[in-house]
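ping. complex inputs:
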Amino acid sequence: MTQPSWWQRFDVRGVFWRHLLRFGILNVPPWIEPVVMASWSLFFMFWGPARRAVIRNLGVIKPGSFATVNFFRCYRLFWNYAWTIADNVRFKERRIIPDWEFTGWDHFQEMQQRDGAILLTAHMGSYDLGAHLFSETSSRRIVMVRAPETNPETRAFEQDRAAEGLRIEFNTRSTDLAIDLLSIIRDGNIVAIQGDRVTGEIGFLPATVFGRATRVPAGPFALALAARVPIYPVFVVRLGRRRYRLMTARPIELVRSRDRDDDFRRAVEQWVGELEHVIRECWSQWFTFEPYWPELVA
Amino acid sequence: MNVVVNRPEARWLPSRHRFALAQLVAFARLRQSDQQIENAPDHLILPIDRDQSAAEVYAVAVWVFVTVAAYLTALLPMPLPLAIIAAIPLASVILHLPIVLGGPILRLILGDNDHIKIVSVATMSLLIVWSFYIAHGDSWARFAAWFFFAVLACNAIAAVILWLMRGVVRAEESRCAR
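pong. complex structure:
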């Protein structure tokens, strides 16, 4: 592996910002935090590609909206993101958890009582914090599957600070990982996967989100079909300072039939329905800093 | 960390607040919160941490920010509207200084640990010294400084009241968090 150049530490995904955030968590008095958050959210508005992508995505989520209004909405999204990643680091460094509200508590409990399940979520709210909460409160083991950090130093930083009791797998070794995950589910545990966007070279299924063609990861659906377990859509939404809601929706049951494509299509439709509903309500927390729909890239 | 489960009124536990004034207000709200709370979630987990109250933190942040911005506006040698515009980003920079300058020094002396308490006391002390200086001046910003000291005085009175009522407060907290 080639050593990254020194300046890559200061790239937006570089390790410098992780160190800075950790420094802030260990040094900023809570009663100054809102001022610090507001300033740094504004600073990150200079991150042009992400800002433009968020504004374009918002244009699809809110059809007919003005770009100027979406610029300010983009600031709100950056503000939420700043608080969310800060809460995540605060938990890792100081073990301080936020207030948690649960909706769909019956589904959530049902998921924990089952012998294996798939937790399907999106890049929203504090996914990491939700997984940490789950690992601390549940008797079931939870394994998170996610895309690795692209910057090697950042990846090493995150691996050094991974929470105890939480296993993270990266979606880069797809064939081996599929077998491992199947085994984890069959042992009665839960696998958490982000199912809203395709990152890297992973299998995908076609989907229509907000009326436009896109792709969602195929892995969770194939895994559910192979392991014969339901998929629980779970979303973590930030309600305010140190206050989150964990929403668990009705499970997606994949019934095996002769037409495998049709099985997937029905499951993807249900997932997309839940995803659209949550994104429409909580657009300021969908942390997708790339153009989501292929047509926006063009 | 201690948590309270499925007790919405525990939001108003004084021990979830930092400053005495906020603790006293929370205690008053807690005593009035016996009635059923509407729209309660299916399940609720409320940790007990002194910095958990959003209303308190935002109120203090706005108060401190406006105070610093007022002091800077009065100091800047330019017309008032321009001074206000310049003071807003400058106030943010000034509030970062104790963290940016003090944090690395504390890290060198005390190690890579949690220094929030020290930075917090140092920042508030600097703000008190600056307010004392402004309050003795003759610029209009002295009113902001007087207000600053009035809030500190109210907080001190609230601390005395809480100390006198400490038994009642503890009993009410135990009732809610049991």
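DSSP finds eleven helices and nine strands in chain A.
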